[in-house]
Design a protein that fits this description.
By secondary structure, this protein is mostly helical. It is built from 14 helices and no strands. The longest helix is centred in the last third of the chain and has 27 residues.
């Protein structure tokens, strides 16, 4: 795959499908570690919305700084109004509103419901990417995605799942994140990934800060301890790594592929949780993690062999 016509210098990371798959796996690793760390870090702050806003602010600062270092001004000036409008939409659709919906939904939804709904993200991305992006899935890849879904059902069985306002909010957040992946895949043809990544969290941060002000929670910031700020910094760095590598992967590989590969982050989180607690997960969950890992390997292998998608834009 070649560079966009407006790129006149060689990128730091080659624009190849192989690098896209590799970056997606790095993103999965970061995700697995982040979920483990966030599970503890969020309890160190008095409000989940405040935690999310501060964490996103740290990540936004890192990504905007990185974009300023690696993206030339001429590339930024070349962006038209449509590109800037798309970047703003990404910040709303991906970097702010779904976070608020997700955390609000968690306060009302049952734990099994929340976990099960969110884990279907890769399915929705695949369903949207085929008609909207023209991505094609080979039968081997479809089979691998089926195995991936089966593994997810073993890890997070739908037993105890009910539907209410909380579940609706979480489903809406999941669908917004799926739409974001498709939109980002299109925008990356004209917007450098560091700019889009920084914009996603930068615009999102503005919306989240506005929400804190409107809800009267902004005053919580003054009472945070040094330990709370330290956790915000650590998780913010992890979030910056996640978004940066995720968008770089989407620039090089199909959205359906990238999102499905991210699912391998779940076994990574499970291993870290097992080490921390000293307790092994239940047998069905172990079987699910094995299926997930096997399916991810199959998706990566079939993609790199060119059986699923021949042309990467």
């Amino acid at each position: 795959m070649g560079l966009d016509a407006r790129d006149s210098r060689r990128p730091l990371i080659p624009m190849t499908l192989g690098w896209g798959v590799g970056l997606a796996l790095v993103t999965a690793l970061v995700s697995g570690v982040s979920i483990f760390v966030n599970a503890y870090a969020v309890s160190q702050l008095p409000d989940a919305a405040v935690y999310t806003t501060l964490k996103n602010a740290v990540a936004a600062a890192i990504l905007v700084g990185a974009a300023a270092l690696v993206v030339r001004r001429v590339e930024v000036r070349a962006l038209d109004r449509r590109a800037w409008a798309g970047l703003a939409v990404v910040g709303i659709v991906g970097g702010s509103v779904p976070f608020l919906l997700f955390f609000a939904g968690l306060a009302e939804a049952s734990a099994p419901s929340a976990a099960f709904i969110h884990k279907t993200l890769f399915v929705w991305v695949a369903l949207l990417a085929v008609p909207l992006l023209g991505e094609r899935l080979g039968w081997l890849q479809v089979a691998a995605l089926g195995v991936l879904l089966g593994g997810q059902l073993l890890v997070t069985p739908p037993t105890g799942v009910r539907w209410g306002t909380g579940e609706t909010m979480i489903a809406a957040a999941t669908l917004l994140w799926a739409a974001e992946a498709v939109l980002v895949r299109r925008l990356l043809a004209v917007v450098p990934s560091p700019v889009l990544a920084g914009g996603r969290l930068g615009v999102g941060m503005i919306v989240l800060v506005g929400y804190l002000v409107a809800s009267g929670r902004i005053g919580v910031l003054g009472g945070l301890s040094a330990e709370a700020w330290a956790w915000v910094a650590v998780t913010g760095v992890l979030l910056a790594g996640y978004v940066g590598t995720w968008y770089a992967a989407l620039r090089r590989a199909p959205a359906a592929i990238v999102t499905s590969l991210l699912v391998v982050g779940a076994p990574i989180t499970a291993v870290l949780q097992g080490i921390a607690s000293g307790a092994a997960p239940a047998a069905p969950a172990v079987g699910g993690y094995v299926l997930v890992a096997s399916a991810v390997v199959a998706v990566a292998a079939t993609t790199l062999r060119g059986r699923a998608l021949r042309t990467v834009r």
